[in-house]
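Suppose a colleague, Dr. K., hands you the sequence of a protein chain of 424 amino acids and asks what its three-dimensional shape might be. Before reaching for any lab equipment, you can write down a predicted structure in token form. Begin with the sequence itself:
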Amino acid sequence: MSKQSESEVVSRAVCGIVLFCFFGLCLLPVSPALSAPAHSRPSAANFAASAPAAPAGRDPLVDAAFDHFYNMDYDRGVQEFEKILERRPNDPFAVNHLLTVTLLRELYRMGAMNSGEYANDSFIGQAHRSADPKIKLQIQQLVDRAESLEEQDLKTNPDNVDALYARGVTRAQFALYTALVERAWFSALRNAVGARHDHERVLELNPNYVNAKLVVGTHNYVTGSLPWSVKAAVALVGLSGSKEKGFEYLRDVANADVENSVDAKVVLALFLRREHRFDEARALMHDLAGRYPRAYLFPVEEANLLRASGRIQESAAAYRAVWQAGREGKYGNLHYEVSAFGLGELLRSQKDYSGAAAAFEMVNEVSGADPEVLQKANLAAGEMYDLLQKRDLAVKKYQAVVAANAATPPAEQARKLMKEAYRE
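The predicted structure, expressed as tokens, is then:
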């Protein structure tokens, strides 16, 4: 196999890996503009985290901590899982909980959760804000701590299903870390494959261990969706699957009263969207939006799905509803401005350039807006002004893009557009 084709296989495999090892994949809304240029996609898709199941029944403290986390109260979620770990220092599940929420909180802070990127392979070349070195060290220490506890248990009993399940969780989270923080794709691949194998072994030993079906089911769908040529090559490293089995397993988890049910619904909604089964996906998002009212990304994804299904007016109203709720303080300091960006993209697709420009400008009204979203919104607003023959306003927006951060792809595009007006 040529180096180029090997690279293609790895790229596609890693795309699937990131999907499945997001394991709570967590609040992964698909961008409504999957075919749009990279500079026009929203960049602040934020995620809740996966919730590995406790082996000895549900812990109310864990449920409460994840309730805060799914509501995107990241700091409180981390604090509560730190307290739980203090009570259970030798429990790998407790370590994995803290590992997961710490990692996902940092990825949210980095702006590394661009939903458009994870819908295709473009995330491989994307660079975001750097991770905090202290948090990186903490994540690596938590991985080491969890693995040490898991290996101790497996050394005593290689068929300990709880230890196998916990190790799979640790490997999945480390795959996510190495892919999105360290950008180490082959390391991510190894850990992701290891996670799947651990959870497949769990299901061999105990077919009723429903939580293990999340990783296995997600992985089956992803690998089952690859082109045959890539699928054959990826099988060489132990990756195979079918979309049908993936859906079956994900529905099993989504319909069960287990900790991974929320995650399974999010992943299931993502895959249903990819299959153009928009109403089914929207029903799942609507359910989660009701359960977690502060998590603005669930109603944003409802708006995305309405747009994808061609219900333009309903989609616009849904984006505006999220925006208004954010302005009224419902989402605190979370980045609900992605709703304005989504509205701008929708209006742009309808060639309502004036309305789109106004929507993109709304992002500037949010104090502490995500810098990547703000930069892309200003770039998009400038493009709309160019189309409206308002060159002076367009140039001002391009200048704002470059002033914000001159070393980004939007800034590079803005510099070009300062020399020559944008044309569709």
